[in-house]
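Archive transcription. Copying these from loose printouts into the bound notebook so they stop getting lost. Printout 1 of 2:
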Amino acid sequence: MLLLRALRIARKHLATVSWTALAVLIALHFASAWALMVLSGEERLVEPVVWAYFYATVALTVGFGDFSPQTDAGRMVAAFYLMPGAVALLASMIGKTTAVLAGLWQRGLHGKRSYRDMEHHTILVGWNGRESHRIVDLLRHEEQGRGEIVIIDVDLEANPRPDEARFVKLATLADPTGYVRAGVRAARRVIIDAATDEQTLAAAMAVRALGGDAHVVAQFDRAESATLLKRHHPEVECTTPVQAELIVRASHDLGASSVAMEMLSLADGPTQYSLVLPLDTGSRRYGDYLVLLRRQHRATLLGYALREAPLKAILNADDDTRVPAGATLFYLASRRIKAADMPLASAMA
């Protein structure tokens, strides 16, 4: 009982020492226990490799039994000095390691860690419950579960999706340091869906002020807010609710709402994608792309947009309309088509 109590007291005090001090204590105990074994007349046990192995098995309490003290003095050293000290020191090291890992996990859970070294990830600014859960699910589906996601919010106390995303908590969405912690400069895309248009506008301005090549999409409730952002940053893609337009269209054209939903759905069946044409493609007829996509990929060309910001889709263009290199094609297909999958030069020569 006295020995167990002494071990608990020792572990309690060892838990408060620094890593450097703990390493020094382990080294001193390792060396001093070896010296006592030498003085006790041990021969085989004090060989360097054997001693390191024996010390580790004692500290880990596994005790394979293949090595043990052969002298009475050596057994006393093992029982009253080696075992208590090694076990206490190892327990302290495990405890400190566990505390560090738990601290890192807690910091990540509560949005206090930095991900500034992350690259090619998606940042989701704002959390709106079920809608945001759906966005994360769709992003993971689109990226086939491989893309990293970082959530930024001001009201969340903990990461709502700890298994699928990282989390950065901010005091305000206008704070640029938070976006630096989220790695915005090297992000692939930033989706801003804050609680209010004012927060979305502030977040978009902060993100663009930091630079980077991320594709920024901002969701607004009012078209006026989107227009205001476009005046300062025309490259930002702004979206607004289309429920009213969809309701009116569905009331005049039976099934219009189902067509619109199917075009944007990521479930089974065709959905809408985009493809940026390589800069060495040259100018081609719209009708050529229409035929090529249909024949080789069973895809339907919807329209195109020029490289200038903001992108404005030109739908159902005339066949003779020239589509320049670098333009974006919008098409309907069952899978995404890569530029490498389209032998443009040979097929249209």
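Printout 2 of 2:
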Amino acid sequence: MLTRRHFIQTTAALFSASISKPLMASSWPTEAEKDAWDAQVTPPGYNPATSNPWGLHPRFLPQRVMARAGLVPGDIHVDAVARYLYHIEQGGTAMRYGVAIARGTLYEPGVYTIKRKVKWPHWQPTQNMIDRDPELYVGVANGMEPGPDNALGSRALYLYVGDRDTYLRIHGTPDPRSIGGRASSGCVRMVMAHINDLYPNVETGSTAFLYSAEDSVTSQS
């Protein structure tokens, strides 16, 4: 079982989504549309460390922290207890972001490869999601077009095991108030402005570690 134990530390202490399937769309948004949506979901005068129109707990705002030696730059580590995502950087640091994880037993710890990245993705619920929550998903069974109200938000990182798409994503959310909780049907959610910052720094082929909610060490920060 994966745990987060001993993999991230700050200068003071050891820190220690909804599932979706590809939608074969007939059309994609233009770059102008994407730019307009990015502006719509980015607060005026945006400063990642201080901007908080979403009313998040301050600890969920992006912070640069110290990373333990030996971690691979470019990899992502998700702490299911503290609700943090760490993106490991060159030089011994990591960017830390607040996230929401899956509700109940839908969270799936594991080691995944990011094999696809999409700006302003389409989204379609899986049949399992529709069967489990028909009132929630039947109205969008045929999928949602990209845009600020799309369930995957502004950016999506697609998680694979080998060549198999797991239908798990790290993605933006139109419900930023869910950050810090257990809300999705499997994915890791981020504030759209935050994942917009993260997205260009994540390369396809990077590894994402989703640590167990039961075995993680609760953050002391």
